[in-house]
């Protein structure tokens, strides 16, 4: 089975929870990198073990190549080599071009882009030795589309996108596939990307043609597909998963419900 061991870089995130639920359904062994204490994972561990998955919770600093390598050495002894690396680090904080402090910019770039580089390098080398593997980046439509609220976040995701392209070109020679999921709006995106200069997220739900927001389950299903043999010829792909959000261009044509009408989500 091609999904024997999966590493999830940010298991604490909303995307991490969806990924854990999907991959554990088929008994995939999981390495969950987390900032939380093991006690806070007890319920998840029980559920995963009941489904046939072995789970290891780790606490590696992903922006340290040494810490990452040490963690991976220990994890491989317990679960075996990693077949799928999912980098889903998407730290988002307000950061405006005109006022962002250097420390804030560096922290966001380190959490999102530097960690992506070291994960790609560390896991890529080991996958290359075994002539196979899948690397999946959970990124954002804001790797190209400005947020108007956090240029540092957008810059970090743009860096991840180009890293993925370069990695796909090189690691593809060793049978490793590298792909990007560009996630669009989810519940709460209007708060996350609240902006005084951009109206992108005003009434954002209705800028999606189907008037429905994406979910962690949607993302996890796509990642599950990319991890498997069914996606064997997909390498270097950027898959925009936004329900058509970026196709919107006229607010007065939004698919909003009529006055008094409600829609189930």
From TrEMBL:
It comes from the Bacteria. One of its GO terms (molecular function) is oxidoreductase activity. Keywords: Oxidoreductase. Transmembrane segments: none annotated. InterPro entries: NAD(P)-bd_dom_sf, SDR_fam. Coiled coil: none annotated. SUPFAM superfamilies: NAD(P)-binding Rossmann-fold domains. Belongs to the short-chain dehydrogenases/reductases (SDR) family. This is 3-oxoacyl-[acyl-carrier protein] reductase. It comes from Paenibacillus catalpae.
């Amino acid at each position: 089975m091609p999904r024997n061991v999966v590493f999830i870089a940010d298991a604490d995130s909303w995307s991490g929870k969806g990924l854990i639920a999907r991959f554990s359904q088929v008994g995939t062994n999981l390495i969950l990198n987390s900032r939380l204490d093991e006690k806070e994972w007890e319920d998840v561990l029980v559920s995963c073990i009941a489904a046939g998955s072995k789970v290891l919770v780790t606490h590696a600093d992903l922006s340290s190549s040494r810490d990452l390598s040490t963690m991976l050495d220990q994890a491989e002894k317990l679960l075996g080599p990693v077949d799928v690396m999912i980098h889903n680090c998407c730290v988002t904080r307000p950061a405006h071009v005109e006022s962002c402090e250097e420390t804030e910019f560096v922290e966001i770039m380190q959490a999102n882009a530097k960690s992506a580089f070291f994960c790609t390098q560390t896991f890529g080398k080991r996958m290359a030795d075994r002539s196979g593997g899948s690397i999946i980046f959970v990124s954002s439509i804001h790797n190209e589309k400005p947020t108007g609220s956090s240029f540092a976040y957008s810059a970090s995701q743009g860096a991840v996108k180009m890293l993925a392209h370069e990695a796909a070109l090189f690691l593809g020679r060793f049978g490793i596939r590298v792909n990007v999921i560009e996630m669009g709006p989810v519940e709460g995106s209007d708060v996350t990307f609240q902006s005084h200069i951009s109206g992108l997220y005003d009434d954002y739900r209705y800028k999606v043609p189907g008037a429905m927001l994406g979910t962690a389950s949607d993302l996890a299903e796509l990642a599950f597909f990319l991890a498997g043999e069914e996606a064997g010829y997909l390498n270097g792909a950027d898959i925009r998963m936004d329900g058509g959000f970026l196709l919107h261009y006229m607010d007065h044509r939004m698919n909003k419900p009529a006055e008094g009408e409600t829609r189930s989500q």
